[in-house]
Amino acid sequence: MTKKNYLFPFIMITSLFFMWGFVHNLDPILIPHLKRSFSLTTLQASLVDSAVFIAYFVMALPAGIIMRKYGYKAGIIIGLVLFAVGSFLFIPAANTQLYEFFLGALFIIACGLTILETAANPYASLLGPPETSTFRLNFAQSFNGLAATLAPIIGGQIILVEGISDEQLSTMSASAQQLALASEASSVKTPYLILGLIILVITVIFALIKLPEIVEEESAVERELSGNPFVRAFKHTHLNWAIVAQFFYVGAQVCVFSLFILYAEKVAGMDGQTAKWYAGFGVGLAFMIGRFVGTFLMKFYKPSNLLAIYSIICVLLCLVAMTVSGMLAVYTVIGIAFFMSIMFPTIFSLGIKDLGSDTKFGSSLIIMSIVGGAVLPPIMGYIADQSDIQVGYIVPLVCFAVVFLFGLRGHRISKKV
């Protein structure tokens, strides 16, 4: 297909990166908001991330089957429908005032996102020459970074409303406190209603347009050795490394993003209203700029080398975040966001490189490893409850060390016989 044929499909695929980036980056706003509304511990509030990212573990393999049987376009439409349904469920969740209902709605949204990411990541990687696949995927993921900047600010303005102060709450009866906090919790209705309507419009557009179907050719050797495609996919050593690296990277990213407001409040003495601006114009903007800068640098440096350098810098910055206080600590975490920005798309593209007909299942397995975002943040939350949120930064530190090993050696392509 010509470059002209690829342009509009690539634009539409890139819009998906923005949309799921936006909803993911509402979670750092939801966590302190629901923590206050339901009087949760840090560990309990971090279950917001667990509800989202455990869906990646549950739905990744079904997503791969959908893609293999019906194609990328069908997978995208199914993912968008689930995304919209989960968004609309925030309205009854707010009406019933059940924390479990919120977690259920987030889980359904994430099931849709799992299918979308399983389709869109390899689609963006394959829509063009193989030698520029990593560059192309990083460019598309840069709009995920743009969403990381806008979501905390827009979501913070709508969701983190100025409610009743803690001093006023302390003078109320238990029933009056519950009513006041319930009123604050209902502020999530509007943003998720609007989000659901936008997703429905995008779904209709995808249903109407013609997308090129990418077909990965199966070699004669692969046909001869074919059996269980998942078992066959695991024979690619670099894919196994990518699965592990992505598990730890996503865990690190969610720890840094979702607990940033709580970190800023504790270490720098910020209030939530101020912290949301640093979450957007600090962490989110640094993440977006890092994506564009990293994409540019990949024209001159091997993606694996850049990944290794960036990850070791993140290890060092985590050490600083664990030891300093005040605004220096906040700026350190912003620095981590800049240098971790290229990691997801780079790990993904290096992991599915030269997989051939195993690409769809390899993509599913890497997306499945996003469950790290469900497993590792509660560990950091538990450490924060038991000790201090700064001590909790040992969790992302270890994660970035694993990513460094992937960039150094694990990305090298080899296949077990």
Model description:
With 417 residues, the protein is mostly helical. Helices cover 79% and strands 0% of the residues. The radius of gyration is 21 Å and the shape is globular.
Average pLDDT, all residues: 81
Provide the β-strand percentage band. Answer: under 5%
Spatial shape? globular
Largest sheet: none
Helical segment tally? 22
Over all CA atoms, what is the radius of gyration?
A: 21 Å
List keywords for this structure.
mainly alpha, 417 residues, single chain
Helix-strand layout with pairing:
Elements lengths: L2 H22 L2 H11 L4 H4 L1 H24 L1 H17 L1 H7 L2 H28 L6 H27 L6 H5 L3 H12 L3 H20 L11 H6 L3 H5 L3 H22 L1 H8 L4 H26 L5 H21 L3 H14 L2 H9 L7 H10 L3 H15 L7 H17 L7
Helix pairs in contact: 1-7, 1-8, 2-8, 2-10, 4-5, 4-7, 4-20, 4-21, 5-7, 5-11, 6-7, 7-8, 7-20, 8-16, 8-19, 14-18, 14-19, 14-20, 14-21, 14-22, 15-16, 15-18, 16-18, 17-18, 17-19, 17-22
Please summarize what this structure is.
This protein has 417 residues and is an all-alpha fold. The protein has helices spanning 3-24, 27-37, 42-45, 47-70, 72-88, 90-96, 99-126, 133-159, 166-170, 174-185, 189-208, 220-225, 229-233, 237-258, 260-267, 272-297, 303-323, 327-340, 343-351, 359-368, 372-386, 394-410.
